[in-house]
Amino acid sequence: MTGGPHGYRGPPAAQANLADILERVLDKGIVIAGDIRINLFDIELLTIKLRLLVASVDKARELGIDWWEHDPSLSSGQPNLREENRRLRSRLAELEPGRLPAEEAGCD
Amino acid sequence: MTELGSYVYGVARGVDPATVAGLTGVAGNPVRVVAYAALSALVSTVDLAEFGEPGLRSNLEDLGWLEATARAHHTALAAAVPAGPVVPLRLATIFRGDDGVRALLAERGAMFDATLRRIQGRTEWGLKAYLDPGERAAPTVDRGDPDAPGTTYLRRRRAQRQEGEELRHAAAQGAEVIHRAVSAVAEAARRYPPQNGELSGEPREMVLNAAYLLPGADRAPLEQALEQALEEAGEQAGEQAGTWPLRVRWTGPWVPYSFVELEPEP
Asked: Which of B14, B56, B208, B230 is 20 to 30 Å from B20 by CA-CA measure?
């Protein structure tokens, strides 16, 4: 027999997560050398984007994505940033008493 | 003059052209069937200005184009699945015409046939787990302290960082246990690297990204294995029940992208 339905539904492409689709269609599936030869991972910019997509934590460290290991507020080499951070915080506290920024990512 | 090519999504067996009638594929072009012997390739005609080597090279750099093409590729394959198994080809497999597609089906017929038999009636499911501190203080959210900046603030940051590392460690451990438990009931399992939040739109750190192959179209056996693993972990941890700072999410069913490259079982 050639198959027969087995209840397959979707996932609807419009709803499936782009990262889930990309990691499958770019990295899995049978590789056939067609007439148009292009190595998907030879492409520089695509490679950068997809390295981010497929980077494991170890790989991320190799690529320098290691923010948790180099938190400037904990690094002794960043006194200015730390001081500035502190100054901005007290300034903000003066201007908007009782309200603090929920995020400080910009200071990190 | 426009030079045309044949973009191949995947290969199935004896696909009735009615199955893909009205289906839109890459570049908004219709999906059609190219048959050779018992095999059918799912194909769209494409303009080689867009899908030739130079065009493809620049288009693949365009995340918008890449997204539209990847989704169309996925849609075409998924549409054919209810009629039987489909072997997905990697994105951007292109021939200069249907003769090349038929030659592919002729030359690699045995491989396609074996792969189709292996994935017959199987579905792929994705399982992702994210670091989720739950009720605990989030390790990366810094609220600081308005009255005591300076040293107190830095101490807090250090403590939060330490806590973050412990959470990450616990999450990674939990992910390993879950993956082992779910793999045990799957026909095959495969791990992917964690995804980048920018593309997935998920702010939490991913600690498990796996795919499982299962007979049938029901993922209940996988869910049961997952729940059992979570329960057992809770019992072992006693008072610290549920100490894995994890949130899990299933995806699928997928065309078995992740399992077509594997060698058939001996």
From this structure: B56
